[in-house]
Amino acid sequence: MCAGGETGIVQLFNTESRSLLRQFKGHTKPVRAVRYTQNHQRIISGGDDAVVRLWDVPTGEQVADFAEHSDYIRSIACSPVSDNLWCTGSYDHTAKLWDSRTGSCQITLDHKAPVEGIQFFPTGSMAVTVGGYSIRIWDLLAGGKLVHEISNHQKTVTSVCVSAEAGPASSASTRILTGSLDSHVRVFETGTYTMTHMSKFPGAILSLGLSPDNKTLVAGMANGLLSIRRRKKVAETDAPVGKGGAIARANKYKPRKKLTADTYRYFVRGQSEKAAEGDIKVGAQHRKHIAPYDKLLRKFCYGEALDAALETTRPQIVSSVLDELSMRGGLRTALQGRSSETLRPILQLVCKYIQDPRYTPLMVKLANLLLDLYSGMIGASSAVDSLFGILHEKIKEELKYQEHLMALQGMVEPVLFGSIRAVPEAIEK
Fold first, then answer.
1. In sequence order, what are the residues at sequence separation of 6 or more whose Cβ sits closer than 8 angstroms to the Cβ of residue 115?
2. What is this structure's pTM?
3. How far is CA 11 from the centre of its chain?
4. Is pLDDT larger for residue 190 or for residue 240?
């Protein structure tokens, strides 16, 4: 077992005798991440000195160092298919793919937030980075192309695990497990990138680990607790078919239980009976259906909730959803990471209602956020460019109206002031 520490020394221990086998000295600041390569012959370490160091286990010597990060290194992941490839995540908002054969960085991934954790997919062709409120999946074979972004956590995502067999036994899809300071572990399916499960823990999660057989989940929390949870599997019956077997037991007559309040039949009794003549019929009270955007808000799917509200084409509903997102602090999350197709309905809404006094304050706030997030996209899409142009003309037109109103106000105020002074004088006379 290898471990780093506050002293900046990487130490190698024998887990059976608990004796110290090696010490690797070279870091000048605390070491935050240590990993073995695929062949377990080398160790990779990184920490607060922003330097990645490669160590040879048999000799205890440093093989190489890489100093292309500009801030603290918080996570390291080694490729499951190559001894020469690994990734590092740093607080400089980037994750880098390294190749020991060339001794340099091959791909830089811009996470747009401090990277807290990084993991390879089992195939080694894709990677996932976590940090801030987002989870990003990258295609390394395509040169670091962003495949998908997930923003389901309400606080900083601190850790991530990837396993091909973490889901149900009937599913072969890879699962992504993430831990966050919001005290939740969420499980996502990579086929559709949807959340399939969520677990609540008694403290903010700082680290997450999964056993090799994918049956034990370990979480370290900020309150000093270590949670170990094991997945239970339903036992299968091996009873033989025939006399005394499973079929015989299933076909055996079982007397019905007495109808009491501890049974389900007690509460549904009489529902199949038909009313007689003269009986008074009381209609069933149907449950009110929850709107799609309300369901998505309950699941903290902010971007999908805003899209569902836009589909209604009703400004009252869209403004209510925007106000709710603003109160939750999720408005920026709902707007970021959009393509030109999903950005167009929002820009059309702003252009249509920014001059409406009922929605002007909300539309101005929305326009400022859109300019902050997507000013770099100007020139990439003709449709988005034209909508930004329309928005610019609308604002110019509104400012011109305001200038005319201010001039009119300046002319009317002296007249009103003179008439107000003339009334008391007339009363005195």
1. 74, 75, 89, 90, 91, 93, 94, 95, 129, 130, 131
2. 0.53
3. 34
4. 190
